[in-house]
Specification:
about 130 residues, alpha+beta
């Protein structure tokens, strides 16, 4: 299955994830990482490292039935808005009402500003600024 096929399966009902404290963090409740845990096809998206995944996922933020899942995946892949996902993980409908409707514009702006500086880290499985 290609990452494009897997991305077609991304929706709010299927995404499984957890938030966890980074190993080196002394602040287990404050500093959280978003980790996609399933289903397997979506978990594979977190290992690909193709920057086009970010662009394609951002477009899914326009669809209320897929926006929360896209938010989770983007946070997991970039570490951007992880606190937002952590705060709304039990209440994704509230996320849509308060932040979800503007998520596409916010992420599109962030990605436009950051994209040329992002590089895939295969060990941490995240896009981060090049050092």
């Amino acid at each position: 299955m290609t990452w494009k096929d897997a991305l077609r399966l991304l929706d709010n009902q299927r995404i499984e994830f957890a938030t966890t404290a980074p190993e080196d963090s002394p602040f287990s409740m404050l500093d959280r990482r978003v980790v996609v845990t399933g289903p397997p096809e979506l978990l594979e998206l977190t290992t690909e490292g193709d920057p086009q995944i970010l662009d394609e996922t951002v477009t899914l933020l326009k669809d209320p039935a897929r926006a929360w899942a896209a938010e989770v995946l983007l946070a997991a892949l970039t570490r951007n808005e992880e606190k937002t996902v952590d705060a709304f993980q039990a209440r994704p409908d509230e996320w849509w009402d308060s932040l979800g409707k503007s998520a596409y514009e916010r992420w599109q702006k962030w990605l436009t500003e950051q994209k040329c500086e992002l590089a895939w880290d295969p060990v941490e499985r995240v896009f981060k600024k090049q050092e």
